[in-house]
From TrEMBL:
Gene Ontology cellular component list: outer membrane-bounded periplasmic space
Signal peptide start-end: 1-21
Protein name: ABC transporter substrate-binding protein
Highest taxon of the lineage: Bacteria
UniProt record similarity statement: Belongs to the bacterial solute-binding protein 7 family.
Length: 323
């Protein structure tokens, strides 16, 4: 009787072993974006692939809407290994790696492909390496976030059209420098209050990516959208170096491939939405202006000269030359 009981116990242990061996490791991603936006759809696709390719050994849990804190708090959590992933722009790394500010300076980046060349350059990889070694942030991928344009109640075709304009810009040093270089008067307004500020003429114009201009209904109180394209932004997928080192090489490969595929989903959604909005604005009677950007770039030269003094002669020109 005892022998039979031992056999049953041993059999039970053998049957339980595969389930234990397949225990799922859950990775956590925190983001500012909301459920349903292109970045969320991209990371959702990445989560699907991670689960599928790992055979369920890995899972990715997503926390949108800043549920885990501000972007600065989430960056700190990734540094400490308390959070596995977060998103932040390459140019926005300047708070920790100062030269990165060049990538968020107006007209340095021509388009998303140009930004990828900048990141892949020796200069860009130096920033990526400093992020990893000094702050524990490993760059997994770079996703397209959008290009910033200007709205007003008049066309913006050349820098002199900005002269005297009260222009709402975020409290960001590169965007404040751009507004001043254009001859505008940068005016601080909380993002949630921009619509009312435009409606009451507290400010004359504002700048944002087209999807935000549409979502916030700024074209209800602005007659012109001028495609100034002054800033091209991405979102880096940042991973804790602690998490990376804890994964087997095969799982590291799965993670990278998953976020590359998720990035393709995000990039197509953003690109298609931007293209569709230009037509949608025109269909609503909004005047869409496509200015020649060369005069705007020329107006930025004094800003570029100051940056070269800070970060090395001809640094800006070397990045412009990567187009």
């Amino acid at each position: 009787m005892k022998t039979g009981l031992i056999s049953l116990v041993l059999a039970g242990l053998v049957m339980a072993w595969p389930a234990s061996a397949q225990e799922t490791r859950t990775l956590r991603l925190g983001m500012q974006g909301t459920a349903g936006d292109p970045q969320f759809q991209g990371v959702t696709e990445a989560a699907r692939i991670i689960k599928e390719k790992s055979g369920g050994r890995l899972a990715l849990e997503i926390f949108p809407n800043s549920q885990l804190g501000t972007f600065t708090e989430m960056m700190e959590q990734v540094t400490l290994g308390e959070l596995d992933f977060t998103l932040n722009p390459f140019g926005g790394m300047d708070a920790w790696v100062p030269p990165a500010v060049l990538a968020s300076t107006a007209y340095v980046v021509g388009d998303f492909d140009h930004l990828q060349k900048i990141i892949a350059s020796d200069w860009g990889q130096g920033i990526v390496e400093e992020m990893r070694t000094k702050h524990n942030w490993r760059m997994v991928d770079s996703w397209y976030f959008g290009t910033r344009h200007t709205t007003a109640n008049k066309p913006i075709e050349k820098p002199t059209d900005f002269a005297g304009m009260k222009l709402r810009v975020p409290n960001s040093a590169p965007l404040l420098s751009w507004a001043k270089a254009m001859g505008a008067s940068p005016t601080p307004v909380a993002f949630a209050e921009v619509y009312l500020a435009l409606q009451t003429n507290q400010v004359d114009g504002q700048e944002n990516p087209l999807p935000i201009i549409d979502a916030m209904k700024f074209t209800e109180v602005q007659s012109h959208v001028s495609l100034t394209g002054h800033l091209v932004q991405d979102q880096l997928i940042l991973m804790s170096e602690n998490t990376w080192n804890a994964l087997e090489p095969a799982d590291q490969k799965i993670v990278v491939e998953a976020f590359e595929t998720g990035g393709a989903v995000n990039n197509k959604l953003v690109t298609d939405k931007e293209a569709g909005l230009v037509d949608a604005f025109r269909a609503r009677g909004i005047i869409v202006v496509e200015p020649d950007k060369s005069a705007f770039r020329d107006a930025m030269k004094p800003v570029y000269a100051d940056l070269d003094k800070q970060f090395g002669a001809d640094t800006v020109q070397s990045l412009l030359g990567l187009r």
